[in-house]
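Question (not urgent): is this output format expected?
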Amino acid sequence: MADRRPRGRRRTDEIDPPGTATRRAALRLLDAVLRRGDPLDIAAHAATQGLPPADRAFAVAIVSEALRWMSDIDMLIDGATTQELPEDVKSRAVLRIALAQLLVLKTSPHAVVATALPLVAGGPRRLVHAILSRAQQEEWRLPESATLPEPVAERWAAQWGDVVVAAAQQTWSAPPPVDLSFAAEPAGEWDDATALAPLHRRLPRGQAVETMPGFSDGGWWVQDLAASLPARLLGAGGGRRILDLCAAPGGKTMQLAAAGWDVVAVDASAKRLDRLAANLARTGLAAKVVQGDIRKWAPDGSVDAILLDAPCSATGIFRRHPDVLHRIEPRQIADMAALQGELLARAAEWLRPGGALVYATCSLERAEGEEQIAAFLAGHPGWTIEPAHADELPAGIAPDESGFVRTLPGQLADAGGLDGFFIARLRAPSA
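Got this back:
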């Protein structure tokens, strides 16, 4: 007897192929990022509920690569259809995650097709199947470098030039290496790793952090080289008191504690502070941990130094978090800049005369860096920029003409690159 089901509708007794649940989770996760604007790492918890750890990791990997290569994947999809699929239609989302598996993760073509079709039950299964078949028959390939979303490319070209945009595309095309910061210079077991700075080692991706030598001993923590620069500009503590503001998850807190500072680490998020406390416990380093919104919280007296790693758009860590370039728009950048100005002005009240304040953001937006400091200095007479010096920084990283540290895509490219950061060291007026 002929099957008289309506086209595209699944029979109720059909069973999803193995692996379909993982792809359904990936579809939910992609929707959370693109439609709701949720950060990938936060949305992943809800989207992957019920999956084993390995399947959760695979769902996140699928979505990460779909986001990283989305502009190029969409171009392939649009070139294979006579009528353009709407941006938010489910079939486009299914094709995005399917092609990310096929072209980037090199998943078995049979597994890709078999797990994609159930996701469009009741929809254009034939269209999805035809496009995936064509991708295999024509041996589709992605370009050498992943194309940035057009609004981001235009914004960064205006701020930094086309060379930096090209470098950003190159660095965005693959996940970055793993950087470790150490409390003390590591021993011989790390001789094969790359040392780009004191108390630092860089390793290729692929090894689980928990299995690396010394994890349980707590002698190191994961931290991109660029993220280690703000604390480096504060030097040895000698027991002096410092506020590490917006401190979680604690990489800079641990740096400062290892350098001999008496650290008070403050963050508004209790959940993130739990992670900071766990990091301190594993490394055996000491800091006073305080939950508080620094717009309302205040210390019990002035301090010798402050490190303000301010909340920001996080566009500088796009190679680790490819979702950020699809979520962040000029409105969010302006909102974050306003918050940063408020936090910077409040933190300045707590510094003793002549003390140092290091302001940092993991952003590639001038509004959250150079323009933020210019506005602060205009409203705070007597404060000055204390320029960073080349001998305080790793080889290949130099302060700009204003004395700021600005890491950009393309720097240290031969060694694996850097996250994008802005760092300024300010000096309070003397009494």
